[in-house]
Amino acid sequence: MQTRMTPAPALAVILILLAGQPAAADAGQEPLPQPLRLESALAVIDADYPSLRRARALRERAERELEAERAASDIELEARLEARWVDPNDLVPVDGNDDSRAVVNARKLLSDFGHSSNRIAASQRQADLSLAEEELSHTRHRLAVLQRYFDVLLADLAFARDNEAMASAFVSLNRARERNELGQVSDIDLFELEARYQTARAVRLRSQQEQRRTRAELGEILNRPGEAPAQVLGPALPLALPGLPDIGRLLEAVDRQSPEIAIRRGEVEVAQRRVAAARTQHRPRLSAEAQVGAWVREFGGDRNPAAVGLVLEIPLYQGRRLSAAVGQATAERHQAQADLDLAMAEVRSAVRDLYYEIEALLIQRDEVTARMDYRELYIDRARALYDLEEAADLGDSMVQQSAAAHFNAATEYALALAFERLALMVGDRSLSPFSPDS
């Protein structure tokens, strides 16, 4: 009776996962659900992930800068206390040496004739853009989580395929050794099978390492660097995908609602406001001032208990500072406009690439269906022959079945990611295969 080897990918996977388990999760975080599902991975996205923290910090800084601009016209209060000794001259009516005084001044900017309003408008728009950038960072991070999650699923399927291939190569080698001892297989054929088996072992080891690596990467992107998920379950295939709009509609949507383009347009608006602010920095400043004070030596017209007034400051000459500031702000506006034009070209090009990629993957999906149907019938026939002992093993048919499953999943996940990227670029959530709230 022929010797049969039953592949045991489950045992190997368990050993891999046990080896990749962390000692403990972060004290401040709940451990990842086990088994981990896609909706759970998206639900546990951590707002403290470094890129998200950075986006939040930039938004908070922009908000504080806006607050500072608005506060520039707040009332200013200043107390001045002076303990003074003087040697009075012969003309003053008071001949004491104590000339101490206490004065409180209040000042409020009433108008600078447009300069502050332009600066506030620029800061307000920048704060709005920082909020949009933060939201965009969350969307990009969600896409990165999807990518890492699918990498794990594909690594598991690749390991199953390569484990089957190694098992099949081992069975063939073992059988050839027995036949070689009987003189039915030459040494050169035996060495060829030995080489194939060793190659299959090396490929399987790399697949095993890829399982560990992708799980570690998934833990990193979920902000749990010491927690590699053991069981990762894939969504049901085939995925429910949205329809692919016409390329013309997609390019129109880029111009109308792309988040990236909207942010670049906003940066042009900010730059224009800053040019206006630079042009108006030489305008007069009208302020209200009030003063109350007390003096030990009360004499003279400038030592009144209280005084109020209006102050108009008119810049007469600022040298080259004004032209330099306007020139710098104008150059920044030109740069922002160039960045917008470049972003438009890059996003349109990326949308075209994604459109053609999705078209090709949809055709490949039909190929997958045909290949899966063929492999199912092929494995059924191989099992029937094996049961009738007309075939020595199921090795090759099992390998091909696993390869077809990997090809199927790879196609579905590539389609899902392409639609997700398209949804991000054109700003249309209806193009996402997964619920944005999942």
Search tags:
Outer membrane efflux proteins (OEP); 438 residues; 9 helices; alpha+beta; disordered N terminus; 4 strands
Topology summary:
Layout: H1 9-19, H2 38-43, H3 50-71, E1 76-82, E2 101-111, H4 115-181, H5 187-221, H6 247-257, H7 259-279, E3 285-295, E4 306-313, H8 321-387, H9 395-426
Antiparallel strand pairs: 1-2, 2-3, 3-4
Please explain how this structure is put together.
It contains nine helices and four strands, in the order H-H-H-E-E-H-H-H-H-E-E-H-H. It has 438 residues and is of the alpha+beta class. It has a domain at 235-282 and 324-438: Outer membrane efflux proteins (OEP) (Up-down Bundle). The radius of gyration is 37 Å and the shape is elongated. It starts with 8 loop residues before the first helix and ends in a 12-residue tail after the last helix. Residues 1-27 have low confidence and may be disordered.
Q: How many E strands?
A: 4
Largest sheet: 4 strands, antiparallel
Radius of gyration: 37 Å
The backbone outline, from C-alpha atoms, is: elongated
Count of runs of 4 or more consecutive helical residues? 9
Order of helices and strands: HHHEEHHHHEEHH
Which runs of at least 5 residues are low in confidence (pLDDT < 50)?
A: 1-27
State the strand order across the main sheet. Answer: 1-2-3-4
Q: How much of the sequence is in beta strands?
A: 5-15%
Helix content: 55-70%
The CATH class of the domain at 235-282 and 324-438 is: Mainly Alpha
CATH topology of the domain at 235-282 and 324-438: Outer membrane efflux proteins (OEP)
Span of the ends, CA to CA: 54 Å
Considering the protein shown, what is the CATH homologous superfamily of the domain at 235-282 and 324-438? Outer membrane efflux proteins (OEP)
Name the CATH architecture of the domain at 235-282 and 324-438: Up-down Bundle
- Oligomeric state of the chains in view: single chain
Briefly note the structural class of the backbone: alpha+beta
- Report the average pLDDT across residues: 88
